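In this supplementary section we document a worked example of the pipeline. Step one takes a protein sequence of length 260 as its only input; no multiple sequence alignment statistics are reported here. Step two produces a three-dimensional model, which step three serialises into structure tokens for compact storage. The input and output of this example are shown verbatim.
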Amino acid sequence: MIQISENIKNRLSTLVIPIVLLLVWQIVTSGGYVSSHFLPSPGTLFHYTVKLFVEQGFLLHILVSLKRVLFGFLIGSVTGFLFGLLMGLSKTAEKILAPTFHVIRQVPIIGWIPLIVMWCGMTELPRIIIISIAAFYPITLNTFSGVRSVSKEYIELGAVYGYKRLKFIRKIVLPAAFPSILTGISLSVGMSWAMLMAAELFIETFDGIGTRIQLGREKFNMPLVITGIITVGFLGLAMTLTAEKIAKVLDRGRAIRKES
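The serialised model returned by step three reads:
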């Protein structure tokens, strides 16, 4: 009997629920239990999706959304990293900045949309700002936590070698805080993608996946709405898995350099 590897078994097991849901979906729609206006059949949705990508430029809307996420994520993650590093390295900075930071982050990110729109207008800038805020919080918290968790032994080692401030950060602090920072980056990617949809749905624009979903709702075009939602789900999963994979590669490379 052919032995199936554990890795293949794990991959196949992840397909069980999607396959069951697809079968139930097909049975419900083909049996007429639900109107096609509310839930199109899998076959109908597949043909509509192909047409959407080929004839209606849906890929361009995806690229626009990805561009927004990239810009917002880069701005939010870089500023969040520097902010978290500052608070982690300086207790004085933490005393001054942390209370205000924790108060502000209690406000749901969507709650900032009206104010930002009033300040910046219906332009591209508010969407980028909202995404940046979403990326800012996780990387700030995880960078701060990682820096503060550096063991005293490493700090004493840096003192023994006589490392100055910048060299101490580069040689001691960042390597020790690296796993926590990577976790923050992964979380920031997911939050950025989630808030992209809010930014596109609540801040009026003409392109992006969120606008296609909104257009489908306005015209009661259920295939467009479902295609948009599924696309958002798959792209979000792909981005999260990619971020986690890159994090593992970087962490492995750091471990190898440390051993050598």
